[in-house]
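User: I'm curious whether this sequence folds into something compact or stays loose and floppy. Could you predict its structure so I can see for myself?
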Amino acid sequence: MSLPSLVIRNGTIVDGSGNDPYEADLAIADGRIAAIGKNLPKGTEEINARGKLVTPGFVDVHTHYDAQATWSHRLSPSTWNGVTTVLLGNCGVGFAPCHADQHDLLINLMEGVEDIPEVVLSEGLPWNWHSFPDFLDALAARSYDADVATQVPHAALRVYVMGERGANREPATEQDRRRMAELTVEGLRAGAFGFSTSRTLNHRAADGRHIPTLRAEEAELTAIAQAMRSVGSGWLQIVSDFEDQQGEIGLFRRLARESGRPVTITMIQSDARPNGWRELMGEIDRANAEGLRLTAQIRSRPTSVLLGFELSQNPFSGRPTYKKIAHLPFAERVALLRQPEFRARVVADSIDESEYASRRVERWKRMFPFGDPPDYEPAADQSVAARAACEGRSPDEVAYDLLMERDGRGILYLPVTNYAAGNLDVVGEMLAAPNSLIGLGDGGAHVGIMCDATATSYTLTHWTRDRRRGSLFPVAWGIKRLTADNAVEMGLRDRGLLRPGLKADINVLDYDNMRLRRPEIAYDLPAGGKRLVQRTDGFDATIVSGEIVYRNGEPTGALPGRLVRSS
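Assistant: Here's the prediction. I'll summarize afterward.
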């Protein structure tokens, strides 16, 4: 064994296999795990991990760092939360391939679908690529605090091949289908880990148009699936509304069969069909029993919207009095919001009936104060409505005053999906399902309304330690779900486990003291753009390819992360 560059001494090894933890040393040499055992030789550098968990680095299969990875070396907030590999290009959106005259179209689409402001994208994207292989080469020239993996995004592909016809969702011709299939093969052979598409009405461009891939015909998807079979690598990542659940799952079965590749789909519980997810999971289980490979991607907490005067939305955004000041800089807005007479006018206002988004978030029984640490499973008696009833005030007044806390930076929490019963029992069932993956953190996206990239940390803190409203999972289970399960499903065989010879992507966790902090706004995007970020205490060290990239949550300056190409 080469002289270890780093030895993690006396840690509790949770190796990603799901097996019981055990105490041992772990030595790293040449970016890989060199040995695990007792009394290993001294390393050039050492970490005393007594009383701490030593785990594989987390693998996040659902991010949207497509833009951030082109201008930043740091894939935060995911990397602040133990993620050492990110997969971008999800939901069919991305920036390659792209003709030079289509930049604005793809920016408009990403702004609408993933809530990244146009000015940020226009300022930040270098556009030093044309084809998908060019895009990979541009990423490969950069260094990061985590490894980056990619997928071929259907929307960009469709627009590249079909132009405005593709953007307008016209049916693809046989020639169009053949060209999309060829470019998918090109992307996979260049190193993409899959192909992604969206079939949901929720995904719209900033100008209101539906995503180009909505209702894409089966012939188009089948041509791409058959092309994937010819390469023999990658998965198909799909998001759907499942309005016709039998029709959609039937289509996905056929795509899995035609491609010979895994299919992974987004799964949530909606209020409208609280048991629909069970039917869907049953179909997924039956498909796997037949020899196909389908998985459901699960968020380990509700899909939520965060509301605040400094954020993209708040419960008063659609009220005429507030709309008059919405354009002002935050400090000027807060000065006006502090004035009693202005407060009275805002509270007394009615929402403009045309303001659908504002009416959608004005749900006082489902809206909660967001503390520090934040509670993602609050009880009904903690809601704004319950608090207002207790205090003899209107919900509007209570919400306004909560938002004005911390100099106008107060945050309200609105769980949108996975919370039909007012608890996370359903999420626990989803997480325990044999054909589910933990994903959907959406790191890099929805920067003004949510910050779910910390769902990795939440899986450990809430589901293996802190939950009081239901049962817990073993910590070894939680680590396996965040590491080996995701790595194997993606096709990454060199990480996700602590084994000699594997890549030294590792977290050292002060598990007993892990704590999610309250999200906050950072103005660190191009053009001074803002984003919600969130940290978690308890990450003593995060290691990528044998180099410590974060110590106690602070960057070391090391950037060993690189583009990962599929084999």
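Summary: The radius of gyration is 24 Å. The chain has a mean pLDDT of 96.
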